[in-house]
Amino acid sequence: MRLLIFTQKVDSMDPVLGFFHGWIKKISERALSVSVICLEKGSFDLAKNVTVYSLGKEKAVSKFRYIINLYKYLWLISGSYDKVFVHMNEEYVLLAGLYWKLKGIPVYLWRNHPYGSILTRFAVLLSTKVFCTSIQSFTTRFEKTVIMPAGIDTELFKPVAHIIRQKYSVCMVSRIAPIKHIELALSAVKELVSSGSQISLIIVGSPIQKDFDYLAFLKSIVLEQNLSSSVSFMEAVSQDKLPEIYSSHEIYLNLTPSGSFDKTIVEASACGAIPLVSNTSLTNLLPDICITEATPKAIASSIQRLFDPHQRLEIQQKLGSFTQSQSLNVLMKKLVKELN
Q1: Entry's CDD domains (predicted)?
Q2: Are 11 and 40 in contact (CB under 8 A)?
Q3: Does position 310 have pLDDT exceeding 90, yes or no?
Q4: Within 10 A of 210 (CB to CB), how many other CB atoms are there?
Q5: CA distances from residue 85 to 163, 233, 304 in whole angstroms, order as listed
Q6: Is pLDDT above 90 for 313?
Q7: How many CA atoms lie within 13 Å of 53's alpha carbon, on the beta-carbon side?
Q8: CB 229 within 8 A of CB 202
Q9: Cα 64 vs. chain centroid, distance in angstroms?
C-alpha cells in the first residue's frame, strides 16, 4: 500500500493533535510508503518511508498560498500513491476529489462531527468510504460509513506506577472552548462545596485566540463563586505528560455534547480515572453510572456517587474491555482492512 494522508498538523508535541503522530508511525509499519500533506508541521520523528509536506501554516503564509502549495505537492507526488486517507478535513476531498475520481484513486474520509452541510454530503459522495467513531456523527447516515475505534495508544496511556491518586479529585482535559461546557462543571463544584462535600477540580487545556474571552469568563466564575481553593487551571500539556495527570485523579469529567467522541475519555479510562460524560452516544460503551445529564445538579450527584471507592473498583473492572476495544492496535487492524 502506498498511502497519501491529509491531516491538520504533524507535531508529536502538540497537546491536541499530537496523537496523530502515533497514527502515522503505526500506519507506516503497514505501508510501502506514506506521504503526508498537513496544514502545519512541527516536531516529528517518523520512519524513512514517510515524507511530510506542509502547506505552510507554521510560516504564516496566506490561505491562497495553502491552495497553491496543495496543488504543487499533488503534482510533485503524482503516481507515488494509490490510496488517499483524509483525516477530519473534508476540504481536501472537495479540492481534489474529482481529480482522484478521474485517476481511479480511492479516497477514505475520516470525519467525526455531529453537524454537516451540503459540502459534507458532496465530500462523502466523492469518498470511497467514510470513517467516524461516534454513532451520532453526521456521517453515520450514509451507507458507506464505517464506525471505527478511537485509536488510543495503550502503551502510553496506562496508570503511572509512582503517582498517587488524590482523593475527591476531578480533572478535565480539553481545549478551552464553549462546546466543552466547562461552566457547568464549575456550577457542579459549587453545588458540592455548598453542601459540604470535598472536591478538587483541575482544568487542563488552552484556548485558541477566539476563545480567550471564554477562559476569562471561567476564571471570573471561580472568583465570584469563591471556588479558588477547589478549582485550578493548567495550560495544555503534550501527550506524554497526560498519563500522570489522569493517574493522579479519581474522575475524568467530559461535558462535550453527543455526536462526537473525545479521545481523552478513553485515555483517562486507560489510566484508571473513572470517566463521567454527558455524551449519550457512549451509552452502550460505558457503564450507565458514567453518563450524566448536562445540568449542575446531575453532574454534582454523579461525581458524589463516583467518589465511592466500591463503585470505582467495580467500574474499573468493566472499563478494561472498553479501553482495549478503542486501542490504537485495534484501530490499525481495522483501518488497514478497510483501506484494502
Answers
A1: GT4_PimA-like
A2: yes
A3: no
A4: 9
A5: 38, 36, 43
A6: no
A7: 19
A8: no
A9: 28
Q: How far apart are CA 97 and CA 123, in angstroms?
A: 8
Q: Is residue 305's pLDDT more than 90?
A: yes
Q: Which residues pair with 340 in a beta bridge?
A: none
Q: Point out which residues pair with 48 in neighbouring strands.
A: none
Report the predicted TM-score, pTM, of the whole model to 2 decimal places: 0.92
Over residues 36-81, the pLDDT tens digits come to 999 999 999 999 999 999 999 999 999 999 999 999 999 999 999 9
CA distance 327 to 325: 6
Q: Which residues contact 288 (CB under 8 A, 6 or more apart)?
A: none
Within its chain, how far is the Cα of 183 from the centroid? 20
Superfamily of domain 2-153+327-339: Glycogen Phosphorylase B; (3.40.50.2000)
Q: Could you give the CA distance from residue 324 to residue 243 in angstroms, rounded to a whole number?
A: 16
Instruction: Return mean pLDDT, the chain.
Output: 96
Alpha-helical runs (H) found in the chain: 19-28, 63-76, 91-103, 118-126, 182-194, 212-224, 242-247, 263-270, 296-306, 309-325, 328-339
Residue type, 68: I
| 215-261 per-position pLDDT tens digit | 999 999 999 999 999 999 999 999 999 999 999 999 999 999 988 88
Asked if the 169-325 domain carries CATH number 3.40.50.2000, the reply is yes
Single-letter code of the amino acid located at 54: S
- Take residue 105 and report the three cell numbers written for it: 484513486
- The band of 311, judged by pLDDT with boundaries at 50, 70 and 90, is confident
C-alpha cell at 71: 496543488
Give the dihedral of Cα atoms 266, 272, 274, 280; nearest 10 deg. 20
* The dihedral sign for the CA sequence 273, 279, 283, 284: negative
Task: Kindly tell me if the per-residue pLDDT of 209 is higher than 90.
Answer: yes
Stretch 301-312: mean pLDDT, rounded?
92
Pair type for strands 129-132 and 107-110: parallel
